Structures are given as C-alpha cells and as structure tokens.
Amino acid sequence: MYGNDFPADDTSGGLLGEVEAAETALREAAERGRRGAAGVNPAAYFAEVIAADQKVEPRDWMPEAYRATLIRQIAQHAHSEIIGMQPEGNWITRAPSLRRKAILLAKVQDEAGHGLYLYAAAETLGVSRDELVDLLLAGRQKYSSIFNYPTLSWADMGTIGWLVDGAAIVNQVPLCRCSYGPYARAMIRICKEESFHQRQGYEILHTLAHGTPAQREMAQDSVNRWWYPSLAMFGPPDTDSTHSAQSMDWKIKRFSNDELRQRFVDMCVGQAEVLGLALPDPALCWNEERGAYDFTQPDYGELMQVIKGAGPCNRQRMEHRRRAHREGAWVRAAAAAYAAKQANQKEQANQKEKAA
Ligand code: BYC
Among 105, 140, 149, 259, which is least packed, fewest CB within 10 Å? Predict the structure, then answer.
C-alpha cells in the first residue's frame, strides 16, 4: 500500500499503547468491582471513587458542577466531531484518486460516528441529544476552534490528519482514563480510530512531500497554515485556563493544556524530519535542561477571537450546520415514526405472549 520508503513506525508516538493500557485497566476495574459502601454518604463515596481512581457511573451521585463540566466538555467534543466533518467533506468530490476518495469518505463517516458515541455518553448525564444540538445551533455551546479554518488545498487533508488528528489524539488519550466511565469508554474506541486517521494523513503528506516540486510546495504551505491553529487546539495557556484545575482534581483532565501542547510539539518534530517538511517556527529548538523543545506559542488572542465566533469560517460552518439540520428534519421524523412503530409491534407481541 505504501512506498518502500514510508516509515513503518507508529506515528502516534506510542500513544496507541497507552490506549490499550487504559482499556485493560478499565476491564480489570470492572471485573474487580468497586471498593467502598455506596449509599452511606454520597459525597464521601464520590470523593472515595475519585481518589481510588475508579469510575463514576451514571447511576452514582455526583456533584452538580461535575455533571455540568462533563456535559459542557463532552457536548463541545461531540459538536466538534460533527462540525469537523465540514472542512474535509469539502474535498471528497475532489480527491485525486478513487482510493483517496474512499478513504476520506470513510474518515468523515468515522467523525459522525465519534459524534454519536459522544452524544450518547452525554445523554447518560441526563441531557438529551436534541437539547445539546439545539444549544449548539443557538450558539450557546462551542466546538473546537480548529474547524473555523478553511481547507484550501488537497494537502490540507494530509495536514488535518497528521496535525489536527495528531493533536486530538494527544489530547484524547488521557481522556481514556477520565473518571467518568461512559466518557472514558467512548474515548478508547475514538482514539483507536483517530490514530488510523492520523496515520492516513501522514501518508498523504509523505506522498506529496516526496512528489513533484509543486506537490512538495503544496504540502509545506499546508503545514505552515495549520501548525499554529493546531497548537491552539489545546486551549488557552494554563495561566488563563478557567476549568483545568477543577477538572484535574476530578480526574476528568489528566494533564494541563500546556503539558499536552508540549507533548504534541515534542512528538511532531521528529515526524516532520521524516516527512522532510519544516515546522514554521524558527525558534523551535531542543532544550537540554527541560528535556523538551522550546517553541513559539500560538497567538492566544486569535484563539479567543475564533472561539468568540470571529474566525475565518465560523459563520459558514454554523450556517451549513443549521441548513443541514433543517433539511434533515424529515429524516428525524421518519426515524422517530419507525421507532414508534417497532416499539408498538414489540409491545403487542409481548401482550400476546403473556395472554397465551
Ligand atoms: N476551541 O478552561 P479551558 C477532533 C474554551 S475533535 C474552542 O482550558 P477546558 C476532530 C473552553 O471550552 C477535537 N473552545 O477549558 C474531529 C472554555 O470555554 P467555556 C475536539 C476552546 O474545557 C473531526 C474556555 O475556552 N476535542 O479532534 O478545561 C475531524 C477556557 O478553556 C478551546 C475535544 O473537544 C478550543 N480549542 O479545556 C478531525 C477534546 N480551548 O466553556 C478531528 C475534549 C478552550 O468556559 N475537550 N476552549 O465557555 C478538552 O479536552 C477540553 O475541553 C479542552 C479545553 C482542552 C479543549
């Protein structure tokens, strides 16, 4: 499938191994059962579950602020997956070959699937998917800043895979160990798929970077445009992050925004070298003392503008989503009518069985 010189290494920087470890830990924890006595003092029990690194489950008592934080983060994450289909969907009809088209189509469908797992995880917290979608459409919930940037060339499909999905995995692998069970379980499946997405993007860029001078230039231009927005995906710097401290206490987040951003930079430098592409940061250099790369921070003023709705594509993304929602109303109505009919038939069959 790949050219002979395509690197065989795991381009997720070993993160897939961490996903597998988190999956094993979840399975073992479920087999062991939980310590502590439920029902004694719910707040003390919740604190004990968090301290023992066990999972909070939907039936458990939880502080309202914990519930609200999870709903905010999981909904924002779900919306990002759905809005995130647009920049790549833009290139499905213009993919350079049938093979590329089939892969891109499958990837965009995967994003829809991720959105569904996440809406389902949010629903376990007592909020419906319809409510969350309404909040997004009303502009009262967010989605990731990164999807407000335009996809200007085919190389952007490679760069989104490599950098955007790469940043997503670095951010999301620790979420496989999130204290809320349904979110952690959803993240395991998502991370496995994301790592494939990242790999396919890397392969697109590798092909372009080793192609004609024009293809190489297109790849470099794309990396130049997406590097800083990808760094900004991790959120504001720790000093300005409003939720990190509390989310880390609750073990929703396991690392701060800056810690994950650093991890991402450290992972990308070697990968860019293998690609033969430059990261657009003249200040990027290894810091022996810190054991990490020094780098130029993204423009956080720009991040805040994009979050507030003033990014290059915010208006276009939301208009498209609202239109798709409107035009899909008949599909939702048909699905609901079909589900009601099935439920009715099942109920009648049950009654018949009882009467017999
Ligand atoms: N964009 O206190 P902070 C994907 C907001 S999908 C927009 O640090 P937190 C993919 C933040 O919400 C990728 N808003 O927040 C899909 C907060 O605002 P509010 C999506 C941002 O939650 C398809 C305020 O800034 N990934 O990869 O502790 C195709 C202060 O921030 C952003 C996830 O959603 C941003 N970048 O940390 C391809 C992962 N950053 O709510 C790829 C799950 C910050 O107070 N989410 N804000 O008004 C998280 O891990 C965390 O929510 C974040 C932010 C690290 C993003």
Answer: 140
State how far Cα 302 lies from the chain centre: 21
Instruction: Look at residue 293 and give its three-state secondary structure.
Output: strand
Task: Give the amino acid at 171.
Answer: N
Listed in sequence order, the residues at least 6 apart from 278 whose beta carbon sits closer than 8 Å to its beta carbon are 220, 223, 272
Residue whose CB lies within 8 A of the most ligand 1 atoms, among 142, 192, 306, for a mutation test? 142
Question: Is 154 within 8 Å of 215 (Cβ atoms)?
Answer: no
| Residue whose structure tokens are 């310590």 | 35
User: Nearest C-alpha to atom 50 of ligand 1 is from which residue?
Assistant: 171
Between 129-137 and 98-123, two packed helices, what is the crossing angle to 10 degrees?
110
With a cut of 50, list the residues of the chain below it in pLDDT. 1-4
Give, using CA atoms, the residue closest to atom 16 of ligand 1.
81
Largest pairwise CA distance in the chain: 80
- Report the C-alpha dihedral over residues 292, 294, 296, 300, rounded to 10 degrees: 50
**Cα–Cα distance between 284 and 74 in angstroms, integer?**
33
Q: State pLDDT tens for residues 26-56.
A: 777 777 666 555 557 899 999 999 999 999 9
The pTM assigned to this predicted structure is 0.92
Task: Determine the distance from the C-alpha atom of residue 354 to the mean position of all C-alpha atoms in its chain, rounded to a whole number.
Answer: 47
Distance 80 CA to ligand 1 centre (A): 9
Answer for the pair 212, 186: CB distance below 8 angstroms, yes or no. no
Residues 6+ apart with CB under 8 A from 345: none
